Amino acid sequence: MQEYTYKNGVQTCEDTVTSAPSVPVFRQDLEAPLAVGSHVVFSGTPADDVQREVNGQLHVNFSNWQARFLLTCRGGHAPSVRRSPRLYPCRVTFNIGAGDDVAVHVDARLPQRCVVRNTRRRGAWGPQETAAFRPFPFASGRPFVVEALVGENDTLWAVDGLHYCEYAHRNPSPLAAAPGSGAAAAPLWLELIGARDVSIDVRRGEEYPKLAPPWPEVPSRRDLEAPASRDEPSWPPNARALLPQGVPPEHQLVVKGRLRALLHSFRVELTTGCQEWPRPDVALHFELRAYFESYRPRQLVVLNSRSDGAWGEERRQRSAAMIPSTNVNYILIVTIA
Fold first, then answer.
1. Domain locations in the chain as residue ranges
2. Identical fold at 14-51+89-204 and 214-226+236-337?
3. Tens of pLDDT along 27-63?
4. Helix, strand or coil for residue 313?
5. CB atoms inside a 10 Å sphere around CB 160
6. In the CATH hierarchy, which fold is given to the domain comprising 214-226+236-337?
7. Architecture (CATH level 2) of domain 14-51+89-204
8. How far from chain centre, in Å, is Cα 125?
9. CA-CA distance, 286 to 245, in Å (whole number)?
10. pLDDT for 144-192, tens place per residue?
């Protein structure tokens, strides 16, 4: 699985998110607590026109917006700074709160092109998380639909129908007010900051991502060297596809790709569904873990399967000798019992 990380250049400045009244804030109190399977849908557009006028002067909220400054020097006069009239939206923030705390804080920062996740408890922020499964999905002026699925141990986040990241529950958890959680009930609320045309919908989820596009089918070729047909899809990183008839007898599943320059890991799975939740059964889990004891001449390959949410016993072997930044072919021979 390809993983994107945007750790460099990320500032620890969550406390400035709600510091200025000019930032649009949409908050919704929850009448019923969140539970496992709760599905929250945020929609809106990153606001690009937030400004306010005080005593005839234009003031820009710099906690949520970035303005361009120009340095000018005329003759022997001291340099002067003037602001360009164009405003740049800096962040869109999604919060799941529990009482006075923030159980899940998801902050999309447009200048750094990263999405930061965190939790605030008793006024103190924890360590940030920034790794994601896809490139940065937000853009100024472009509408978005963000899905959040509350699981037993984590919260899953999708943008425009594609899974983006997951965030393990901390203290407090978004399930803090759920019956039987073992903790004192805390009123929950949802918040979306820095967007316009906002809507928030909460319901029971049956599948996540609910807004996922139709998945393509794995094409069939005569042999390994046969050229691709015109109707074959263009495969993005972290691709998913359907095998409506499974792997036919006397056929092989071939995966082609190019390894990353900084090879960490990747996996190929045959599952009973393309959704992220409920977790599908995994008939075959093939994972190359190049990060584990990377000094050794061959990389670790792990084989496993998952049924009813439980993983079996791993089979490990050091049989891969992958070279970063090279093209590879993986041939998975699937035997139907």
1. 14-51+89-204, 214-226+236-337
2. yes
3. 999 988 899 999 999 999 998 754 433 333 444 444 4
4. coil
5. 17
6. Jelly Rolls (2.60.120)
7. Sandwich (2.60)
8. 20
9. 21
10. 999 999 999 999 999 999 999 999 999 988 987 554 444 556 678 999 9
Q: What is the pTM of this model?
A: 0.76
Q: Which residues contact 127 (CB under 8 A, 6 or more apart)?
A: 118
- Length of the chain as a residue count: 337
Euclidean distance between CA atoms 44 and 145, whole angstroms:
7
Q: DSSP letter string over 130-193?
A: --BSSS----TT--EEEEEEE-SSEEEEEETTEEEEEEE--SS-TTTTSTTSSS----EEEEEE
Question: 3-state SS of 194-237?
Answer: CEEEEEEEEEECCCECCCCCCCCECCCCCCCCCCCCCCCCCCCC
Amino acid at 71: L
Kindly report the backbone phi and psi dihedral angles of residue 128, in degrees, each rounded to the nearest multiple of 5, phi listed first. Answer: -80, 150
